[in-house]
Amino acid sequence: MAKAEKHLALALQGGGAHGAFTWGVLDRFLEEENLILEGFCGTSAGAMNATILAYGLHLSGRRVARELLHNFWKKTSDTAANSLLQPNWLDKTFGKQGNMNFSWGYNMLELSSLYFSPYHMNPYGYNALRDILTEMVDFERLRACRVTKLFVCATNVRRGRVRVFKLDEISIEAVLASATLPQLFHAITIEGEDYWDGGYMGNPPIFPLIDGTDCKDIMIVQINPVNIPQTPRTALEIQDRMNELSFNASLMLEMRRIDFVDRLLKEGINPNNRFRPLNFHNINPEKDIWDLNVSSKLNADWEFLTYLRDLGRTYAEEWLDKHYDHIGVESTCNIRENFM
User: Fold this and answer.
1) Which positions of the chain have pLDDT values less than 50?
2) pLDDT in the model for residue 202
């Protein structure tokens, strides 16, 4: 029996290589012919996934979107294989899969970043992702997409504000800006303003999907743990947790505001009919990835990326089995429990 048609908008968190988990979620969702993906808002790796997926849908539909996502992550892995940022045999033998605690390249990067900026270490501003995106995406064609909505988030460095690029504004510069970690890359200049990774101010922002689509259901795919089982003790663990808290802060605050509006609507309060009822859903793999440290976000080893992809597919499969019929009917995410 065919499933009923359902509509979903997706908010995709950033988190470097952990974005391969989101790739897996998207790959599984694209197999559901009756699941209409109405819009995407992405930050950093989430912006990469969203851009590639939207372009594939625009070109030829779901099959091509899945192929392009695979190709993007494979090209990213192949490019990284030529760098020093690789796990070594000690990482693969003794550590948590994905962490690069023993990687000479990663530890040298960490040490050098204390004293040198990318303007010293990489004076010409080379970014391998630019080459990959240039090869894979015709941004002029992408801006003509009408099969889905696309929003990409970046942080304005000087003004300290979020910038959300709408579909007709999206360029290779906008997507790169969304993933520009200032420890690694030069700021991206767009229209005279400099931008860093969107995760500092919106990871991901939800409001573009509320204001910019008619979709009633919003799925948040998280890749930064909110809850962890124990308080960090070592310097590395503390650094990891600070990173997670920083990149979750904007989402937690926005969800608190959304919960406030939801409570107003349930009490029959809707000034000037400004708000509409929404259903929220989320996929969060924190129980399986909480012990992946910040080094793993730079690990583009193909074995690790496909592990995350398969994990994402598993989470998506479980969510669809349990909640597909709830789409369009009710929230499957308790905002207060998950975000407050």
Assistant:
1) none
2) 96
Length of the chain measured in residues: 340
Domain residues for 132? 6-339
Residue 204 belongs to some domain of the structure: yes
Structural contact between residues 168 and 130, judged by C-beta atoms closer than 8 angstroms: no
How far is the CA of 202 from the CAs of 136, 156, 172, 228, 282, in angstroms?
26, 11, 19, 21, 16
**pLDDT given for residue 84 in this prediction:** 87
**Would you say the C-alpha torsion 206, 210, 212, 218 has a positive or negative sign?**
positive
Contact 99, 308 (CB under 8 A): no
Our count of domains for the chain comes to 1
In a domain, 1, yes or no: no
Rounded to whole angstroms, the Cα distance separating 318 from 331 reads 16
SS (H, E, C) the chain: CCCCCEEEEEEECCCHHHHHHHHHHHHHHHCCCCEEEEEEEEECHHHHHHHHHHHHHHHCCHHHHHHHHHHHHHHHHHHHCCCCCCCCHHHHHHCCCCCCCCCHHHHHHHHHCCCCCHHHHCCCCCCHHHHHHHHHCCHHHHCCCCCCEEEEEEEECCCCEEEEECHHHCCHHHHHHHCCCCCCCCCEEECCEEEEEHHHCCCCCCHHHHHHCCCCEEEEECCCCCCCCCCCCCHHHHHHHHHHHHHHHHHHHHHHHHHHHHHHHHCCCCHHHCCCCCEEEEECCHHHHCCCCHHHHHCCCHHHHHHHHHHHHHHHHHHHHHHHHHCCCCCCCCHHHHHC
Query: What CATH number is given to the structural domain containing 221?
Result: 3.40.1090
In a domain, 206, yes or no: yes
21-63 confidence digits (pLDDT tens): 999 999 999 999 999 999 999 999 999 999 999 999 999 999 9
Specify if 300 maps to a domain: yes
CA dihedral over 205, 309, 28, 320, signed as positive or negative:
negative
Query: What pLDDT, on the 0 to 100 scale, is given for residue 1?
Result: 67
